Amino acid sequence: MAFEGLSEKLNSVFKNLRGKGRLTEEDIRLAMREVRLALLEADVSYKVVKDFVAAVSEKAIGQDVLESLTPAQQVVKIVNDELTALMGGANARITYASQPPSVVMLVGLQGAGKTTNAAKLAGLLRAQQGKRPLLVACDVYRPAAITQLQVVGGQLDLPVFEMGQGDPVKIAQESVRYAKDHGNDVVLLDTAGRLHIDETLMDELKRVKAAVRPSEILLVVDAMTGQDAVNAATAFDSALGIDGVVLTKLDGDARGGAALSIRAATGKPIKFVGTGEKLDMIEPFHPDRMASRILGMGDVLSLIEKAEQHFDEEQAKKLEEKIRKNRFTLTDYYEQLVQLKSMGDLNQLVSMMPGQLGKQLAGAEIDPKTMAHTEAIILSMTPEERENPKLLGASRKKRVAAGCGLEVVDVNRLLKQFEMMQELTKQMSRGKLPKGFGGIPGMGGGGGRMHGFGRKKRLK
Hints:
The chain is an alpha/beta fold. It has 3 domains: 4-86, Up-down Bundle (Four Helix Bundle (Hemerythrin (Met), subunit A)); 102-295, Rossmann fold (3-Layer(aba) Sandwich); 304-455, 434 Repressor (Amino-terminal Domain). The chain contains 21 helices and 10 strands. It has helices at 4-18, 25-41, 46-60, 63-66, 71-86, 114-129, 145-155, 168-182, 199-212, 227-239, 257-266, 287-294, 300-310, 313-324, 330-342, 346-351, 355-361, 368-379, 383-387, 394-404, 408-429, and strands at 102-107, 133-137, 160-161, 186-190, 216-222, 244-248, 270-274, 282-284, 364-366, 453-455. An 8-stranded mixed β-sheet has the order 3-2-4-1-5-6-7-8, with helices on both faces. A two-stranded antiparallel ribbon has the order 9-10. β6 (244-248), α11 and β7 form a beta-alpha-beta unit. α20 (394-404) packs across α21. It is flat and about 75 Å long. The relative contact order is 0.10. The model is unreliable at 353-364 and 432-460 (pLDDT under 50).
């Protein structure tokens, strides 16, 4: 995940500062030297690093910090504030036209992920803002670009407008007319890219811009290209005038320097970030939340928002009532695993959790094969057995195992893990956690291994 290396180094610096109690100017200077090296290793541009360290040092060496009872915490707060400011300060939203449809042009180099992220963004705008987006195939050069847009659009049940290998300017104009006639209030243009920036590409994009006057031009850049992403942003902004950036593949680069450099280099905000390959893995970019994540303080707000998108409110109320009355059943157990799985990559959720909890769960993953076994075992039981597993004697366990094609030992393992979860919910209903539960069972602490979860081996 992005910033993993930077986060570890910064937390090491802050740990050393906390160990000193009172700080001197020399302590701050040595710490800032480590911060500078950490940022440079994260592929943040030299000028950005220099300005950032100077701003933090000036505030950290102030008397209010050095004479504070908790100077290390003050330094962390200063770094957090400066990181937030560096990335833009606040979430930057899409600008919509006063009269629909609003036209959003997605531009960028070939391979940055424009086509996939056009669909991702359309899906996000529909889900979170109630928009009725129309995807438009304006890349008439890349082989299968139109087909790719139709495929990803189809997977999200989004309409796609195309006119074959025609003139991109005419296609863009006709798509706007189509959107007006069919009630689409946002038009997303998937434009052509090149392997490098050239006059032919820019001239075409300028003609499309002049023809449809987009309310928003978003540059799609690949976070894994590091400073090349910053260079591309600078060049596109200079030639075309962009309004914001969609940073893709943020999950694939442990450095993340592009995210810290783009705003400072171009003055244009990162508006959205792609966090994985699945079509729902895109989210608005919040500088304050990202700064909090980098400094190991988690991103609880994003975690809550993600949960709200995937969890059924009515079902959650029923579950809360069952836990309160200590009536947690095998059916409830399975439903929670399914909902957790629907939230996506567990490592992304872990990165949003603060401090030690995130570290405890690092590397945890949901094993699809084991999830399938869990489902098969539970569905092989009668409704009465799911409500009251104590009915499952030896003969019933054999029947369940035979019904799902597994062994009795698999049934016993699930029942044991369910008993542990029942014990946890019993203690929760009394307002406390049992000894040995350092978090979710099987993902840290002493709770054992949860059915449906495994741990990735770390390669050194």
